[in-house]
Design a protein that fits this description.
This protein is mostly beta strands and 287 residues long. The chain has three domains: 78 residues, SH3 type barrels (Roll); 55 residues, SH3 type barrels; 119 residues, endopeptidase fold (from Nostoc punctiforme). Helices cover 13% and strands 33% of the residues. It contains four helices and 24 strands. A six-stranded antiparallel beta sheet has the order 19-24-20-21-22-23. The longest helix is centred in the C-terminal third of the chain and has 12 residues. The protein is globular and about 50 Å long.
Length: 287
């Protein structure tokens, strides 16, 4: 029996599917979709077209996507950067205007209406949000869509951080938010995805996807086999080793990004859920 396509990463419903899936899935009609870009600081991607529906992930400023359906203020979309599918408010989406040139490399920063930190900001952006810079010089950089951003808080696309673990550690204390993907709230796999992406490693969104696809699986699982940067998985959970025995993860126990001994986390997770460590994966040295 053929395994059905994962609806988190494939655009299909009984009434509608992406044109490229014609012949693969059955639907009443097929559409090619329309290109859009996120103009808000971030937009939620929900499991259903309701504000009280489960938050699956978030799309950051400047990211692009394809809209396949729109109805009553909601768009059914697929994100470009990781292929995630869901429902997003149409307010905050625009037709793509300027291709991003830079990404936010600080944990968070502001867009100002003028090149002056004393004026009220227009928006706050989180790590990996994308912007189009029109002139790459000076202390504040002008943006194609208006406003200015502090130059040292952004980096040209393609310029990546040297240590994804150090990036992840900047999130220490950030509140836990299921489906969150910003510096004001994120979940375990969101932390991994953001930090990895900042260092040039593109990984899927959810923990089960990362367990199957991020880096390469390594044998073992005891302390002596672990190294800084290893990803440790349980069923539905993931975190990052910061040393052979210290572990960083966004978690609902602390309701925050916390660093603790791996053994403490593993014992607590087993006591609460019965789950043992299911996999350990490691990124190659070069993205």
């Amino acid at each position: 029996m053929t395994k059905p396509l994962d609806p988190r990463r494939h655009v299909y419903r009984a009434d509608l599917a992406a044109e490229h899936l014609r012949g693969t899935v059955e639907a009443e009609r097929y559409v090619s979709g329309e290109r859009r870009q996120v103009a808000s600081s971030a937009l939620p991607l929900r499991r259903a077209p309701r504000f009280d529906a489960t938050l699956d992930t978030e799309a950051l400023h400047g990211e692009t996507l394809t809209v396949y359906d729109e109805d009553e203020g909601w768009a059914w979309v697929q994100l470009d950067h990781d292929g995630y599918v869901g429902y997003m408010p149409t307010e905050g989406l625009i037709a793509p205007t300027h291709s991003p040139t830079h990404r936010v490399s600080a944990l968070r920063t502001y867009i100002f209406p003028e090149p002056d930190s004393k004026v009220p900001p227009l928006a706050m952006l989180s790590l990996n949000a994308r912007v189009a810079v029109t002139e790459d010089s000076g202390r504040y950089l002008p943006l194609a869509n208006g406003g200015f951003i502090y130059a040292s808080h952004v980096a040209p696309l393609g310029e990546v951080a040297d240590d994804f673990v150090a990036v992840a550690e900047t999130f220490l204390g950030t509140p836990y938010l299921w489906g969150g993907r910003t510096s004001v709230g994120l979940d375990c796999s969101g932390l991994v995805q953001l930090a990895a992406s900042a260092s040039g490693y593109e990984v899927p969104r959810d923990a089960d996807m990362q367990e199957a696809e991020a880096g390469e699986e390594i044998a073992g699982g005891q302390g002596e086999t672990l190294a800084r940067g290893d990803l440790v998985f349980w069923d539905g959970h993931v975190g990052i080793m910061t040393s052979p025995d210290e572990f960083l993860h966004a978690n609902a126990h602390h309701m925050a990004v916390e660093k603790e001994p791996l053994r403490d986390a593993a014992d607590r997770i087993k006591a609460a859920t019965g789950f043992e460590i299911s996999a350990i994966r490691r990124f190659p040295k070069n993205p």
